[in-house]
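step: validate -> pass
step: tokenize input -> pass
step: predict -> running
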Amino acid sequence: MAKDFAKSFYNSSAWKKCRGSYVETKQGLCERCREPGNIVHHIEYLTPYNINNPDVTLNHENLELLCATCHQHEHYLRNSPTVEGVMFDEQGNLIKRDAPPF
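step: predict -> pass
step: emit ->
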């Protein structure tokens, strides 16, 4: 869900046009896993300080089309207090985990 400072931006016609044209350039496929994508992600995260800067908000070079799984990975697992790629075994030892599918 969009943060309060970004709600009007995400409802703007400029964003809707930019988003639509970007999805079209990527043939609707997630840029990470090639599954159908439905979320246009800003690589440089939007903040109250850059929300009015079209070089950040409407620049195709700052966008990435993601599926819900890859978007969740970007926002939640990337900022998680746990380390990706490791897990605990039955004895509580830290061991390597098999790589995720994306």
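step: describe -> The first strand starts at residue 39 and ends at 42.
step: cleanup -> pass
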